[in-house]
Design brief:
- This protein is mainly β.
- The strands form 6 sheets. The chain has a 5-stranded mixed β-sheet, with no helix packed on it.
- The chain is 4% helix and 54% strand.
- The protein starts with 5 loop residues before the first helix and ends in a 14-residue tail after the last strand.
- It is flat and about 65 Å long.
Length: 390
Amino acid sequence: MVVLSRTMKRWMFTIVCFMLIAVPLVAAQPSIVSTSASQSRPMSLGNQLISTIALNPQTPNILAFGQQVNLTFNYTTDEPGGVRIYIHPYSSGAPTPNYVVSGSPLYPTGSGSGSDFFTISSGPMTVDQILFQMYNADQRTLLYEAFIPVSYQFQGTSTLVTNIQLDPPTPNILPFGQDVSLTFNYTTGDPGGVLIYVLPFSDGAFPPNSRVSGSPVYPTGSGSGSSSFTILSGSVIVDQIRFQVYNADQSTLLYEALIPVSYQFQGGATLVSGVHLDPPTPNILPFGQDVNLTFNYTTDDPGGVRIFARPFSAGVLTPNQGASGSPLYPTGSGSGNGSFTILSGPVIVDQIRFQVYNADQSTLLYEAFIPVHYQYGDSFSQVYLPLIIK
């Protein structure tokens, strides 16, 4: 038997310690544990929050395989060693297959901003949620997680429409005859070129009293295009937009896809329309951060009107809200603004209600709701929640 001296033991211990220190620690992305739709997710630990998310390109959209969805966000943490922040695309309550995501730097304790991206390499796949997770520096403790609903269809056909931009944005309320204008990119290998048609859909059908633009012949290869549609009469909610690509003589349908939207077309003497939201929906916000709104209005009430925007959750006014009042808007047409916030919770604002009253608020002249998703406060129990903006 070999007996080591005390000096030899100390020397060997020193070598082992040096080898352990010399091995670099790689901040690999933690694995995801998939949960079913009925399972809940953990609470936030301490003062942790990811908020004010910006998505580029905006949702809803259609993207080619490998095209990135880029995100920026703000964060707050009291974790003394800093944190790592990861995003994961989800589909039908589980991590989307064939996804590629960026890693995470070590974000310092306190407040700051960050960025991330994801894409899908093959499919086809529809990403309907994005999961945000915050870990401590060594990724052993999950400090925070939350979902936002989205709609990104990743496709890879030889003929494809992608990178859709909507003006005005969805969700919205529009007067009869106002166009929804669209721009898009396309790719096709059809040698004779293609025709691209954009149609509004409501409850699975092309609504009556619609007006849509035609299509030029787009040349083979890749390029960009534009289109528009409107509703001329009838109370209609456009809840989908359908894209169809035909060959030049329209004998062959080469491509078809639908994206979810929410455009309420209305008429009447008093109307709120052209709504813009800042920050955009969907989003996660800290308590006290305002959602700012601008809008257009029309009224024939001779004494002028007051216009109020209020947050709703599950069909009732959201508790612990703060909202702006209203000036007296003069009769005729013009523009206005408002804001609201949530002071405590946590809570998800899933609708915004618009009400228009006469000057002394004795008569309700108009009311409408638009669907949104604003999650206020720390992470809380989550279940699968696809994007529904009808």
